[in-house]
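Collaborator request, handled under Task 6.
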Amino acid sequence: MARNMVEVSAVRGDDLEDLVGLWLAAKVDAGVPLEVATRFANDGRFHSALERPEVCAHMARLDGRPVGYVMTSENPFGLSPEPEIAVEQLYVDPSARRHGVARSLLCAVVGHAERAGSEVIVSNVPTQSREAHRFFARLGFSSVIVRRVVGTGALRRRLSPQGGVGSAVEHLIRRRRSLRSESRAS
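C-alpha cells returned to the collaborator:
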C-alpha cells in the first residue's frame, strides 16, 4: 500500500483559516472548551502572535487536506548562548497520525533552524502527553528542564503573609513540620 505524500509549507495569509481550524482542534483535544478556544482565536491575539517576526508556522497537508501544523519561535535567551528555535506547538489531526506528518513538520523546523543559524531545537511538551514525550525522545530530544506554571493570583496568595484562611492553614502545617523535624533532631 502506497503512503500518501505529506506536503509542508510555511503558513501564508490564505492558510490562516485552515490553521485556526487545526489550532482549535488541538485546543479541544487538550481539554480546552471549544467556546474558550474560539473566543481566544477571535479576539485577535492568535493572528497578532503569528505576525511577530520571531514566530514561524508551517502547515502539513495530506491529499490536499490540512492535517497538522507546527509553530516555532526564535528564543535567543534560552538554555545556550546561541539562538534556539523552540517548537511551541505541534499538532497532527488524529486521523492523520502515523503517516509521517509530524516528522515532515519537524523537517521544516530543522530547515528553519539552519537558516536562522540555530544549532539547538527545543520542544515544549505537555507533561501529561506520554505519546508526545515518547515521540520526541525517539528523535533524540532529551529532558533538560521541567517548566512549572502557576497562575499569577495563586502565586500572589501563596506569597502574601496575610493571605487569608489558606495561609493560616499553611502556616500551621509548616509549624507542625518544623516541630517534627526539631523533635527528630533531638
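The cover message to the collaborator said: "Helices lie at 16-29, 34-42, 45-51, 101-116, 130-138, 152-159, 165-185. The longest strand covers residues 65-75. Please let us know whether this matches your experimental observations."
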